[in-house]
Amino acid sequence: MLANVSTHNDIRAWAPSTTLLLESDGSAIEYVWSDAARLAVQVALVTGRALLLRGESGIGKTSLAEASAAELGWRYYRHTTTSRTEASDTLWHLDAVRRLGDAQVGATALKPDAAYVEPREFWWAFDRRSALRRGALPDEADVGDAVEPNSQINLHRSADHAVVLVDEIDKADPSVANDMLELLSERRFRVENVTPVKLIKWSAPINSLPPLLILTTNEERDLPEAFLRRCIVHTMTWPGERAIDEQQRSNERTFLFKVVEKHWMSLGGEWDKAAGDIVNLLITRIEDERRAASERGQRKPGLAELIDAVRAVRRFGISQTDALWGDVLRLVWRKTPDSNEV
Fold it and tell me: By residue range, what is the domain housing residue 134?
């Protein structure tokens, strides 16, 4: 259910436990909120700061961003960073090649500048109506509507609020992160190299919450200190791995079991003692594999690999007594060959 959070007064009462998400294969899964993740989003909202999610690859950082948007009832936009990313790539793109080609054909083929502009994530987040029109004013010629990302999902969400996920920000030059924070603090930018130059800005009623920027990092590159100071930082770890006592470790394992249970049930079939036993065994096996990978100095399998194991076991219809059991698990979560395999 969409919470329709729109003001600071709504945040304290916002306390989701699970959120329904659609997987890439069209199946539905309930995202399970931890208390720490929920509080991190709440603090980011009340401070107006960006939320930086740290943690190993596959721990669920992207899913947290998707669940935040779904539970808040806000539109959701995602930009995946590469080594070539610039901050402007999240704002707009001008198809100069197509404009030049039309100009060479002749004046009748050349369209208004706005027709060659493609709005990117922050434009859609700040001003969806303007993005649909590519920034064209009412008295300008028809330039054709732009295609909104996640249009079917976003159609039913708040027109005035959005979550922007910038995934793997550590892959970009450090200046990109700083430019994004400056952009979020000003909540405005200019679309240049077009006539007329267009000012895009976010505006909403007093006390209304601004767009929520969520960034993720896999720690491939150090982020600037000035950038970190301006973020709310939440580090996502394997449940129970940093527990200070047995009670906390037990609570964390219960949480992990619930996460895996939801994925198991999303694949159909009955949830019974046999299913619970398999899930418990998978959790134990992957924790053993994580310890072994750490001793070998290799990447540890994460939550994503555990979920893949659930899918494989469930869809193959196998258990620990099946001859395929060990081979399936190794294929799913061991990414580096053993010494005897190379």
Answer: 8-235
Q: Which residue in this structure is represented by tokens 């436990």? A: 17
* pLDDT (0 to 100) of residue 338: 63
Q: What is the CATH number of the domain that holds 138?
A: 3.40.50.300
- State yes or no: pLDDT of 9 exceeds 60: yes
For CA atoms 27, 28, 31, 32, the dihedral sign is negative
pLDDT exceeds cutoff 80 at 140: no
| Closest by CA position to 8, among listed 47, 35, 39, 64 | 47
Residue-averaged pLDDT of the chain: 89
Co-location of 52 and 127 in the same domain = yes
Domain boundary among 235, 262, 294: 235
Residues 255 and 274 in one domain: yes
**CA–CA–CA angle 44, 22, 163 (5° rounding):** 25
Strands 74-80 and 158-167, bridge-based pairing: parallel
Among 235, 262, 283, where does a domain finish? 235
What lies within 8 Å, CB to CB, of 135 at 6+ separation is 114, 117, 119, 191, 194, 198, 200
